[in-house]
Design a protein that fits this description.
This protein is α+β, with helices and mostly antiparallel strands and 205 residues long. The protein is built from 3 helices and 10 strands; from the N terminus they run αββαβββββαβββ. The chain has one domain: Cyclophilin (Beta Barrel), CATH 2.40.100.10.
Length: 205
C-alpha cells in the first residue's frame, strides 16, 4: 500500500499546498477523558543525529497514541529511518529500514485529526494515503506551522497526537540534511538518519 504525506517546501504557498499529499501512515489508543491532571505519556527517540522527547496526547487522539505506543513497545521503530525529509516542512519516518525496505505493519487506524490539536511546529502527526483512515506506523514531525494539513482545511487532515518537548534542535538538524532520490522516492537523506531506539519514558524519569 503506497503511503502519502503532505508535499514540498512550497507548502507556504496556498496553491502548492493543494498538492500536499505524499508518504504517511497511522495508529490506536485509550482516552484520558476529562482528567486534565493526568500525566501524558512521553517517548524518547534516539537517532543517529541525536535524541529528542515527545509528549503524547491520548486526551485528543487516544487510538492514535495507543497505536504508536504499541509499535514502540514492539520495538518496531528500531532500525527504521527518516526516509522523507523536507526543510521548511517536515521529517517523516517509521516505515522503512536503512535499506529502504518497507516494514510490514498492523491494520490501519481511524483518522483522529482534530482542530483542537493543529499541525504546528514541533508536533507529530500520522502519515497516511489519500484514504483518511489508512495510517499505520508512519509519522511525521512538523518543522513549521503547516496549517494546510489541519482537519477541515483541505479535507480530513492529518492527525496530530503529540509534540516535541525536548530536542527540537535535533529535529531541525535532521530537517536540514542533504537529500536526493533513492529507490523511486524523493527527499531521501543521502546519509541515512537512523532511528536507533524509541522508548517510553517512565514516570520516575
Amino acid at each position: 500500500m503506497t503511503q502519502y504525506m503532505p508535499f514540498s517546501r512550497q507548502l507556504v504557498s496556498p496553491l502548492l499546498a493543494a498538492l500536499a499529499a505524499f508518504c504517511l501512515v497511522s495508529a490506536p489508543a485509550q482516552a484520558q477523558s476529562g482528567d486534565e491532571d493526568a500525566t501524558m505519556p512521553e517517548v524518547r527517540f534516539e537517532t543517529s543525529q541525536g535524541d529528542f522527547v515527545l509528549e503524547l496526547r491520548p486526551d485528543v487522539a487516544p487510538e492514535t497514541v495507543e497505536n504508536f505506543l504499541q509499535y514502540t513497545r514492539d520495538g518496531f521503530y528500531e532500525g527504521t529511518v527518516f526516509h522523507r525529509v523536507i526543510a521548511g516542512f517536515m521529517i517523516q519516518g517509521g516505515g522503512f529500514t536503512a535499506e529502504l525496505s518497507r516494514k510490514p505493519t498492523r491494520d490501519p487506524i481511524v483518522n483522529e485529526a482534530s482542530k483542537d490539536l493543529p499541525n504546528q511546529r514541533g508536533t507529530i502527526a500520522m502519515a497516511r494515503t489519500n484514504n483518511p483512515d489508512s495510517a499505520t506506523s508512519q509519522f511525521f514531525i512538523n518543522v513549521v506551522d503547516n496549517d494546510a494539513l489541519n482537519a477541515g482545511v483541505r479535507g480530513a487532515g492529518y492527525a496530530v497526537f503529540g509534540e516535541v518537548t525536548e530536542g527540537m534542535d535535533v529535529v531541525d538538524t535532521i530537517a536540514g540534511v542533504e537529500t536526493g532520490y533513492a529507490r523511486g522516492m524523493r527527499d531521501v537523506p543521502v546519509e541515512p538518519v537512523i532511528i536507533e531506539k524509541v522508548s517510553v519514558v517512565s514516570n520516575d524519569e
